[in-house]
Amino acid sequence: MLKTHNCGDITIDLAGSDGAPGEKVDLAGWVHRRRDHGGLIFIDLRDRSGIVQVVFRSDENATAYAVASTVRSEFVLRITGNVIARSKDTVNEDIATGEIEVLATDIDILNPSKTPPFSINEDIDVDESIRLQYRYIDLRRSEMQHTLALRHDMNLHIRNFMSSNGFLEIETPMMIAATPEGARDYLVPSRVNKGHFFALPQSPQIFKQLLMVGGMDRYIQIARCFRDEDLRADRQPEFTQIDVEMSFVEQDDILGLIDGMVARLMKDLRDEEITLPLPRMSHDEAIRRYGTDKPDCRFGLEIVEISDLVADSAFGVFSKTVQSDGHVCGLCLKGAADRYSRKEMDELIAWVGQWKARGLVWFRINPEGQFDSPTAKFFESDQQQAIMERMEAVAGDFLVFVADSFDVTSQSLAELRNRFGRELELYDPHTIHPLWVTDFPMFAWDKEGNRWVSEHHPFTMPIKEDLGKLDADPGSVRAQAYDLVVNGYEAGSGSIRIHDSQVQQRVFELLSMDHETAQARFGFLLDALQYGAPPHGGIALGLDRWVMLFAGSDNIRDVIAFPKTQRAADLMNGAPSPVDDTHLRDLGIALR
How far apart are CA 521 and CA 526, in angstroms? Predict the structure, then answer.
């Protein structure tokens, strides 16, 4: 080994007494910072464990001092020296090794370094494209190293928890048949079978169900998955999920298991106790109260409907919307009457148009308890009072309303609610609030395709009392599906699966998939379900997203060692890249 100790592990116990040299240590790492004080050179040496100060004295070791004078930031060094205690007035309480320093006796430059494109030792903003282009340098930052260590710890704790609960970690194939449903597959051409393609898995879904048919009973995999879809700050084309499946269980069994796992992670990684069971809310309730099935419940600010109160008001925007089967809903911002100027409200009105809202109606509640806005004149005092009572508003509050279809009203107010939560600092950004959303609709109507599509995926079992509605009223069928929502993010999604081949075939038919198509795509699953498939269910939790939440980040790229950009590109190694003609000919592929 080139080193006997890690930089961050040098403690006062290794120092001599009364300032005398203590234990001899060999260290190796990067130059974090170098300071020349004329006759004294201080080098902060850094490795993954932390930073230690090394001192070179020209009067004690001229050779080592001369070498130290040539080094620069990010040089890779090996240093030998003795641990000494710092004087009380030079102790650095900001670092773990601040009580000591190493008096160098020897130094070896293992590798010099060019000047990095950005500084490692300064807390400055660096353009993300530069960070991604030089990711190997970005990874030296303590924030990145702490985050990847957190990711390691989370993996380890999840595996240990699941193993202690009887789960087997089983790998599923990485090259599978393409599935046209859902997000786009990444395709892999077959050289041996020209003209045919594998697909990279979007999920191990079918294989984990087949493992249940095979009697594996309890399965887990930290699975790599791939989706060729448009990206967002919390999405990547390749991602990792905690994939879980269990046999002979009902929904409560799975939710209870994951409750225990979340509690363990919160305790072990954040030293926080959470109350179990985690709160649960139906899909309908989440939409009604928060406008979304992914509510951020770190704060209140619930949506309130006032359609019945304004159906016959003199304000045509409200009354005509209600008369056209629309909805008028709003938010009450407590104590925020003077928070937003007229100019800021105009900007908000334009902003909310992204979600097709045609505008915002707002009222300040003045000290006399009356509406104060350009539209206040359209509301009689008794109408104002009724609205304020419904909104639980008092003097000093600020009311905002959207009048439109249910979908537009819900989505736009959900986005407004999240924005107000951030701007008004209605929650502690470091808190984590998990919530189960259950009883999702089984199907959603695709207007463009004029057909039913799966709300989750086509292998989800309807709740028992709704099975009889599959033929007569598919839109009212609820699924045994559940999402684990954390701080407004979908952090996990699962369901009880269909284990009856006839029910599965009927669901395929409702999704406009005829018998021949179903057999071609999923025939092996339909066959397997006829050989004694047990009742089973599971869940997949996004590992990247969980690490992001635990790290307090809002960008999933910050918790992945080598992420892609929002255009699914790797700025460091140039992927995706062109392929030479010889390779394409071997695969039987011609480009247009």
Answer: 10
The H helix count followed by the E strand count for the chain is 17, 22
Cα(191)–Cα(514) distance, rounded to whole angstroms?
A: 31
Cα(224)–Cα(238) distance, rounded to whole angstroms? 7
| 428 CB-side CA count, 13 A | 4
Which among 119, 220, 115 has a CA at the least distance from the CA of 172? 220
The owner of tokens 């109606």 is: 361
445 and 532 belong to one structural domain: yes
Residue 182, pLDDT > 70, answer no
The CATH number of residue 239's host domain is: 3.30.930.10
Q: Decide if pLDDT at 231 tops 70.
A: no
- pLDDT value at 174 more than 70: yes
Q: How far is CA 63 from the centre of its chain?
A: 52
Which residue segment(s) compose the domain that 541 sits in? 145-281+435-559
In angstroms, the Cα distances linking 196 to 10, 90, 177, 188, 199 are: 58, 69, 10, 9, 10
CATH number at residue 314: 3.30.1360.30
- For the chain, the average pLDDT equals 94
* Phi, psi for 467 (deg, rounded to 5): -55, -35
User: 420 and 456 share a domain?
Assistant: no
Pairing between β-strand 168-169 and β-strand 197-199 as defined by DSSP bridges: unpaired
Please indicate, yes or no, whether residues 348 and 470 belong to a single structural domain of this protein.
no
pLDDT at 166: 98
Signed CA dihedral, 499, 504, 507, 508: sign only: positive
Backbone φ/ψ region at 493: left (φ over 0), alpha (ψ -120 to 50), beta = beta
Residue 538 has pLDDT above 90, yes or no: yes
User: CA separation (Å) from 9 to 6, 94, 101, 288?
Assistant: 5, 15, 12, 53
The verdict on 303 and 392 lying in the same domain is yes
Per-residue pLDDT at 229: 81
pLDDT (tens digit per residue) in 385-431:
999 999 999 999 999 999 999 999 999 999 999 999 999 999 999 99
| 234 pLDDT higher than 80 | no
Task: Kindly indicate the confidence band of residue 520, based on its pLDDT and cuts at 50, 70 and 90.
Answer: confident
Structure tokens at 546: 């969980």
Angle between helices 406-423 and 342-352 (to 10 degrees): 130
What span, in angstroms and rounded, lies between the C-alpha atoms of 103 and 84?
Answer: 7
- For residues 476 and 109, give the distance between their C-alpha atoms in angstroms, rounded to a whole number: 71
* Angle at the Cα of 255 from the Cα atoms of 171 and 491, rounded to 5 degrees: 65
State which of 111, 133, 159 marks the end of a domain.
Answer: 111
For 27-57, how does the pLDDT look when each residue is reduced to its tens digit (9 = 90+)? 999 999 999 999 999 999 999 999 999 999 9
pLDDT score at 250: 97
